[in-house]
Specification:
- The protein has about 450 residues and is mainly α.
- α1 packs across α8 and α2 runs antiparallel to α13.
Length: about 450
């Protein structure tokens, strides 16, 4: 247990502190959580509501023992865009629901058998390149937004002006990330969007008319099964989105280990990794029932915990309630809608690059040896098939494409090629997990 804890996990803050402490977490998650629906065509208001409800569900499932906030997952951006093109928001909800179910099934298996089987299926040589694909596969989207690509005309409209705004946004985000200290260092996305937005206003790219006309209170555009639409199953959408849940499970385990170190408690053992994964799945299922993107635990909010030393789940719950309330404020959604694509493109250049770089970091941290042909082959095939957009058609109604295909082929190659032990490198992922699992027993 850390000695400098200001508020422990289940301590309630004083009423006059509660609002400010929760507001910090709201700011930390806000920029990233609304960015995902903007990039994918979903509703930012619904994303806020679903992130708040999903976080509350997570807190309940983890017995109020894990102070984590859940927001929109960046790993699902490319699959959601592909699913939108096939079935619209309704189709995305089918894929999101399936991803949540995979989390739930995995949690049940882990509860009964442990977690090593998952790490064996997803060693660093598979997960690292897939994460790189997730980031680099979105590079074109970031540049098209930054340079104002118009799909109707098939050309860039006034690209110099828009790209200048995008670069200004990018530089502000970088400065905030590198040079700012304390809490400000944890919200570079929000600061970048805010700064870029002001630059866009000065450049004449923003109109506030829609904000003035928007009501203060409104009902978000929920996409609710059997209420606003009748679900139609699509194996193509399922196979686009479901494999990403398998990959993000590895990220979830990493987040839980980091969170355990920050708080000074072993969350892998108590309440258990199966509960945190089940909570993540429940939050994603909640999103699928409302029209929001898949949810995941947020590193930004873990950073807030590390700086403030306030670990109270009541503070996290307060932030969740604020997010839900913001989702019903019409002027907030209207203001978000006025953010130019150039601003989002500027932030995305950095964000998508960071996603890809985190895949490289996984390979480096685990000391994967690319002098071994097996590792070189697996990584190469995943990168080219994933970024290149390879796909296979199974009948008339089923297509396995892009990232999903790359994930499948990576898992397959890792399973059949000899020398499987080389795919784990120094086994740092296993060492960290085992240390977390045995920490309490050794105490």
């Amino acid at each position: 247990m850390n000695n400098d804890v200001k508020l422990d996990v289940q301590e309630k803050p004083k009423w006059n502190q509660w609002l400010i402490l929760s507001m910090q977490h709201l700011f930390a998650m806000f920029g990233a959580t609304v960015l995902v629906p903007i990039l994918t065509g979903l509703s930012p208001s619904v994303a806020l509501v679903s992130s708040g409800l999903g976080t509350l569900a997570y807190l309940v499932i983890t017995k109020g023992q894990v102070p984590a906030y859940l927001g929109s997952s960046f790993a699902f951006i490319m699959p959601v865009i592909a699913a939108m093109a096939i079935g619209g928001p309704e189709g995305v909800m089918i894929g999101t629901f399936t991803a949540g179910i995979i989390y739930g099934i995995t949690a049940i298996i882990i509860q009964r058998t442990g977690v090593n089987w998952l790490m064996n299926v997803l060693p660093p040589i598979v997960v690292g390149p897939v994460i790189i694909v997730i980031g680099l596969g979105l590079a074109g989207t970031a540049i098209d937004m930054a340079m104002n690509y118009d799909e109707a005309s098939g050309s860039y409209i006034n690209p110099a002006l828009h790209f200048s705004v995008a670069l200004a946004t990018l530089f502000i985000t970088i400065i905030a990330s590198v040079f700012f200290k304390g809490f400000l260092n944890l919200i570079p996305i929000l600061l970048g969007i805010t700064g870029g937005y002001l630059v866009a206003v000065a450049a004449g790219l923003v109109s506030f008319q829609s904000v003035l006309e928007a009501p203060w209170l409104h009902l978000p555009d929920f996409v609710i099964p059997f209420a606003t639409f009748t679900p139609q199953w699509s194996w193509t959408i399922v196979l686009i989105m479901a494999p990403i849940a398998v990959v993000t499970l590895a990220e979830h385990i990493g987040d839980q280990m980091v969170l355990s170190k920050v708080v000074g408690r072993n969350f892998i053992k108590k309440p258990g990794l199966h509960r945190s994964i089940m909570g993540d799945g429940a939050a994603t299922i909640v999103a699928s029932l409302l029209g929001g993107p898949p949810n995941t635990t947020y590193g930004e909010n873990i950073g807030v915990l590390a700086i403030t030393r306030v670990f109270s789940v009541y503070v996290i719950g307060g932030a969740a309630l604020m997010a839900i309330a913001f989702g019903f404020v019409g002027k907030v959604e209207a203001l978000i809608a006025t953010i130019p694509g150039a601003v989002m493109g500027g932030v995305s250049i950095l964000l998508f690059g960071i996603i890809a770089s985190s895949g490289l970091r996984m390979l480096i941290d685990n000391q994967i040896n690319f002098g071994i042909k097996r590792n070189l082959i697996i990584a190469s095939v995943i990168l080219v098939t994933g970024i290149g957009g390879a796909f296979i058609e199974v009948g008339d109604q089923l297509e396995i494409a892009g990232m999903a295909f790359a994930t499948f082929i990576g898992i397959l190659l890792n399973a059949v090629l000899p020398g499987k032990e080389h795919g784990f490198g120094n086994r740092a992922m296993f060492k960290s997990l085992n240390e977390a699992a045995n920490e309490d027993d050794a105490a």
